[in-house]
Amino acid sequence: MGIHTDTDSTHPQDPLPTPVTAAGRDGLAAVLAHPEKSVIALDFDGTLAPIVADPEQARAHPDAVPTLAALAPKVAAVAVVTGRPAGVAVRYGGFAGVPGLEHLVVLGHYGAERWDAASGRVSAPAPDPGVAAVRAELPGFLDRIGAWQGTWIEEKGRAVAVHTRRAGDPQAAFEALREPLAGLAARHGLVVEPGRLVLELRPPGIDKGVALLEYVRDVSAGAVLYAGDDLGDLPAFAAVDKLRSDGVPGLLVCSGSDEVTELRERADVVVDGPAGVVRLLSALADQLG
Questions:
Q1: 25: Cα separation from own chain's centroid
Q2: 60 near 49, Cβ under 8 Å?
Q3: Residues 161 and 200 sit within 8 Å (Cβ to Cβ)
Q4: Consecutive H or E run containing 229
Q5: What angle (nearest 5°) sits at the alpha carbon of residue 228, between those of residues 224 and 172?
Q6: Cβ-proximal residues to 36 (8 Å cutoff; 6+ apart), any chain
Q7: pLDDT tens track of the chain, all 289 residues?
């Protein structure tokens, strides 16, 4: 398990933590030695933005954008990798039109969409028809299996998600829905991606790992830092492991949550949620001068 950083606001600036693995220490050293070749890649919900009961109310930590604006000019690239639509992440993050973030990229829908700060535009392929079919069927489906009470549907454009955080027993509802939703997804050529009390139905063959690998290779990065908090970030962690095996150093950061222990156990560094992520990035920006 990675080391925790102190998020006590009475500390004006934490030092950079020491990763608990040799690979993580190599990754951090590479970022510090060659920031101009380094990519900083970050999940949004739970990493840059605190988890809230209603995803439509999620907003980036108040210090996230100023910190990214201070860090971005010192590294090769900063990318936000999220399951949300790219435009939604941009609005909720407040990323548009920020000095210092002129080259920020948001890879939305696990890389199916891309927003570039330089142009302010989102590029994306046509949506999968299976998502529209599931979207239409899902309310009645949940009602028929007796799972409507306490669950709710989030429309995500190129995906649709079922949340159980408001149910009487959120974890029991989550487990009860996994198999039925997997069957529904399969009938429409989709897959189910589990998260923190949420099950997302989306097209196969896209995930944060694929998005991260393609982006890192596209910019010819010499090192990468990836920070995430959820099961959907495991493919990105695996992508960093793949990059390491290919000779590209990497650092894995977990935005700590007791709900997702697997990510904590695989991380080189564990910080205390979005506030901890911001403090780590701030320390990195200061270290780079």
A1: 22
A2: yes
A3: yes
A4: none
A5: 155
A6: 75, 76
A7: 444 443 343 345 678 999 999 999 999 999 999 999 999 999 999 999 999 888 889 999 999 999 999 999 999 999 999 999 999 999 999 999 999 999 999 999 999 999 999 999 999 888 889 999 999 999 999 888 776 578 889 988 888 999 998 888 899 999 999 999 999 999 999 999 898 899 999 998 889 999 999 999 999 999 999 999 998 899 999 999 999 999 999 999 999 867 778 899 999 999 999 999 999 999 999 999 8
